[in-house]
Amino acid sequence: MQQALAVPTAPAVPYHPLTSFADVLKSEFLKLSSVRSTFWTLLSAVVFNIVVGAAVGAFVPSHLSVSDKQTLDAIRLSMGGLHLSQIAIGVLGVLVITSEYSTGMIRATFSAVPQRRTVLAAKTVVFSVTAVAVGIISCFGAYLAFEAFLSDDSMSSSIGDPGVLRAVIGGGLYLAVLGLLGLGLGLIIRAGAGAIATQFGLLFVPNILIDLLPSAWQDTIGPYLPMEAGSQIFIASARGQSSLGPWGGFGVFSLYAAVALAIGFALINRRDA
Q: Residue 183's closest CA among 51, 63, 87, 95?
């Protein structure tokens, strides 16, 4: 009898979990950059900022009185697109983590990198760098578009004027921290719709409810609400006595994101993927 020919088989490739943080960073960057929604979300944030900045500069000054033009913070006005771009960045922050839970890809991720907190740290770093870069670029674009289309030279400013550079960069930092807040809530809730609703509920609902409180309470509590505190960083003009300073307000806003991320990091090893 003829012996059956042996079919050559490929040598087994040993499996090695990713252990280098640099490798995990590369993996997370590839995941973030390869998703089509990431590109469109970031692009929409840039477009919102620039288009709204140009539109506000072109059309709003003609509807303002002389006293309004003298007292209005033109830099904050140029950052009007943040009201839209914050939605895009906030949603992206949530989806960075919840999309993996919804598709089940998180199991493969934790199989490749058993150290779960290493994965989360890499996600946080990759998203932070991306959000800061896009946020600052879009805010500079908004400021330049506002100045280019400004219909009243009395409201014009220079990037070297007091508080202007800090306010423009601060707008980008605000967007990045808002996205990190979404990432933290996504870690806690693990469902996209629930985390997005919680995030924007936390931003908008307290500002509505505080109007029902006595004025003394409003002055005491109001400056520490997330959106009120966070917005101080992109205001260039003088503030009211009850308001926090730019960096103090930004610090309070960052604390909300830090608490959400800390809770998410604490829970990650206590729950099934």
A: 95
Query: What would the pLDDT profile of 75-127 be if each residue is shown by its tens digit?
Result: 999 999 999 999 999 999 999 999 999 988 999 999 888 899 999 999 999 99
Q: Who contacts 160 (Cβ-Cβ below 8 Å, separation ≥6)?
A: none
Statement: residue 10 has pLDDT above 70: no
For residue 186, give every residue at least 6 positions away whose Cβ sits within 8 Å of its Cβ, in sequence order, or none.
Answer: 93, 94, 95, 96, 97, 98, 192, 195, 264
Please list, in sequence order, all residues whose beta carbon lies within 8 angstroms of the beta carbon of residue 143, skipping any fewer than 6 positions away. 53, 75, 78, 79, 159, 164, 168
Query: Phi and psi for 12 in degrees, rounded to 5?
Result: -65, 135
Nearest residue to 79 (alpha-carbon basis) of 153, 154, 157: 157
Tokens 């220079």 correspond to 158
pLDDT tens per residue across span 159-203: 999 999 999 999 999 999 999 999 999 999 999 999 999 999 999
The conformational region for residue 245 under phi > 0 = left, psi -120 to 50 = alpha, else beta, is beta
89: tokens are 């960045």
Helix, strand, or coil (residue 68):
helix
CA distance to 74, 199, 215, 256, per residue, from 242 (Å): 21, 25, 11, 20
Residues 27, 112 contacting (CB under 8 angstroms): yes
Question: Vertex 29, ends 34 and 90: CA angle to 5°?
Answer: 85
How many alpha carbons lie under 13 Å from residue 75 in its C-beta half-sphere?
A: 25
Q: Percentages helix, strand, coil for the chain, rounded to the nearest 5?
A: 75, 0, 25
Q: Annotate 158-183 with b (16+ C-beta within 10 A) or e (fewer).
A: eeeeebbbbbbbbbbbbbbbbbbbbb
